[in-house]
Every structure is written in structure tokens, then in C-alpha cells.
Q: What sequence folds into this?
């Protein structure tokens, strides 16, 4: 009996100390990010995609995923930025773009729906066209 009480107290202490750590690891409610993208041209007249979104409280950075399909292959570029806007050079084609807010420890805080952007082939040098739509799919998985 004398050994049981100290063992129970030790176990209660360990469990009590572990509980706050476990609570900190529980997922928090993620913020929906309102992402807006459009096809544009660079100063040199090259096609590009420009995106912007509102800042997320507690975000240290944002992951931006730009995906384009090439036949059966999908090519994705993931870029990290501390800004709330990006510009990405693009060739004619259809792209899906998503943004994820991350904290200092790289844990996700929020994500956008993917936005579909079509970069048209320029009719002549220096011009470009675009169409955009909200794809409604989930943003990129945690990278």
C-alpha cells in the first residue's frame, strides 16, 4: 500500500503534465481564405497569373500551390511567401491555384478553395486573355 500511493501520485503528475501538451496538439478551427486570381501580363509582355488574399491572424507565411495538367501528368509548384499576393509567370493553359496559411511551426491555420485560371494564347506579342472560376475543391494538402 505504501508503494501504491506514491506510484499513483507520480502517474497523476505525469498525466496532468501531458494533458496541456495533448490539448495544444488538437487541431484548431481553420480559417477559410478568400483567394482571388487572374491572368495578367508581366512588364515584358509575358503571360502571368496574379493572386491576392486577406491576411490570416497568426499566419507567419503562406504556401501557394500552382498546378497545371500536361496530358496525364500534373505539374505543381509550391511557393512560400510572407506576402498576401503573388505573381507567377505562366504559359497558355489552365491552372488550379490554392493558398494555405501556416504558423511559425508550419502548422496549417487556414486554406482557400482552389481557383481555376485559364491563360489564353496571346493573339499578338504583349496581349493575353484569361478566364477564372472557383473550382470549389479543397486546397493543397499539407506539404
A:
Amino acid at each position: 500500500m505504501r508503494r501504491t500511493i506514491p506510484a499513483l501520485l507520480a502517474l497523476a503528475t505525469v498525466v496532468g503534465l501531458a494533458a496541456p501538451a495533448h490539448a495544444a496538439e488538437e487541431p484548431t478551427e481553420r480559417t477559410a481564405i478568400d483567394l482571388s486570381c487572374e491572368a495578367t501580363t508581366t512588364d515584358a509582355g509575358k503571360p502571368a497569373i496574379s493572386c491576392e488574399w486577406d491576411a490570416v491572424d497568426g499566419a507567419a507565411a503562406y504556401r501557394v500551390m500552382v498546378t497545371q495538367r500536361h496530358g496525364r501528368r500534373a505539374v505543381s509548384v509550391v511557393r512560400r511567401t510572407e506576402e498576401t499576393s503573388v505573381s507567377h509567370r505562366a504559359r497558355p493553359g489552365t491552372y488550379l491555384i490554392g493558398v494555405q496559411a501556416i504558423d511559425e511551426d508550419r502548422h496549417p491555420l487556414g486554406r482557400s478553395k482552389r481557383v481555376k485560371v485559364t491563360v489564353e494564347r496571346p493573339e499578338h506579342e504583349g496581349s493575353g486573355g484569361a478566364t477564372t472560376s472557383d473550382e470549389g475543391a479543397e486546397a493543397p494538402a499539407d506539404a
Summary: The first strand starts at residue 31 and ends at 33. The beta strands are 31-33, 35-41, 47-53, 61-70, 73-81, 85-89, 93-102, 108-112, 115-119, 130-134.
